[in-house]
Amino acid sequence: MTRHLLHVFSTFAIGGPQVRLAQIINASLGDYRHTIIALDGNCEAKSKLANGVNIEFVDVGDMKALGLAKRFNAIKERLQTIKPDTLMTYNWGAIEWTLVNRLTGACKGVHWEDGFGPEEKEATLPRRNIFRRFALSGSTQVVVPSYNLMAIAKRDWRLPASRLSYFPNGIHIPATLPERVPKSKGKAPTLVTLATLRAEKNIHRLIDSFIATAPEGKLLIGGSGPLLDELKRYAEQNEASERVEFSGYISDVWQFLAQGDVFCLTSDTEQMPISILEAMGAGMPVVATDVGDINTMVAAENLGYIVSPEAFNDALADMIANPEQWQKIGAANQRKAAEKFSFAAMLDNFTRLT
């Protein structure tokens, strides 16, 4: 029997969790019937879904305008109308649905936590932790993609190991990758990043580091988001607009990455970013801030370039100055991505959850 899964996101704009779900849906045609609710009405990641998938998008209107009691009642009514076999909620923005489902017992509940916004980059907020403990109690299964989040869930949310699942992200590496375009040999490197342009990604830091370390280089920023216009102005104000390219929505990740020498990530908070896995799969060396599980994701050869925000400039400068290392580090990253973070393993984990 085809199982009906209801997925509730604060937004279905393009981002790591949304793209991961789209890839899973595309790979499991016929196994499930899906309903997706984007609480902000943004369904941009719909573009990542294949033709013919068994899926419905439901518009619930502006639920934030309702008072708490009316909002909870509206959620209850939606669950009763949609009647899913499993409710899957994603991150803090959808946790009220997790709570209502737990209180009403409407269906099996699975809550995914992929990380935090800028307000929790230093530490989780006590008031949110209290709410999470209440919402995530009962029989709700909680899924996290990183060991860092596993520790937080046990310590701050007091979740027992029996209801906590480690679900590492995975990628499918094409059998044939696009030919790598750049041949800069370090003098004028092309740096690339992929990100939803939000505050916690700290792209300002990346632009600053690029200006300081690669005066003859180029920076390609793939992705869109609320800070796009601000970041364009920032590059212009720093007289770097001719060398910083905002590529917008990226439909072909592998073709985009093939343009670069070095992949960069400057986030203040992450857990297990898919963009790092994609860079590894593309055979690229990575320079990144030491957040979440990134230091356990990359190959040993790359580990010295996963550093604190304060050391990012020095790490990037060292990588740029040693282009003879790029191929070796990139090849090691690619091997590890293929061996440890396969899409097939991720799909198997999803099947077990449902």
What is the string of helix and strand elements? Answer: EHEEHEHEHEHEEHEHEHEHEHEHHH
| Major sheet characteristics | 7 strands, parallel
Q: What is the number of helical segments per DSSP (H or I, 4+ residues)?
A: 13
Number of domains: 2
Can you tell me the CATH architecture of the largest domain? 3-Layer(aba) Sandwich
Structural class: alpha/beta
Taken as a percent bin, the fraction of beta residues is 15-25%
CATH superfamily of the largest domain: Glycogen Phosphorylase B
CATH class wording of the largest domain? Alpha Beta
CA-based gyration radius: 21 Å
- Termini Cα gap: 13 Å
- And the CATH topology of the largest domain? Rossmann fold
The total of beta strands comes to 13
Would you identify the regions where 5 or more consecutive residues have pLDDT less than 50?
A: none
The average pLDDT value, as a whole number, equals 94
- Helical content stands at 25-40%
- Shape annotation: globular
Strand order of the largest sheet: 3-2-1-4-5-6-7
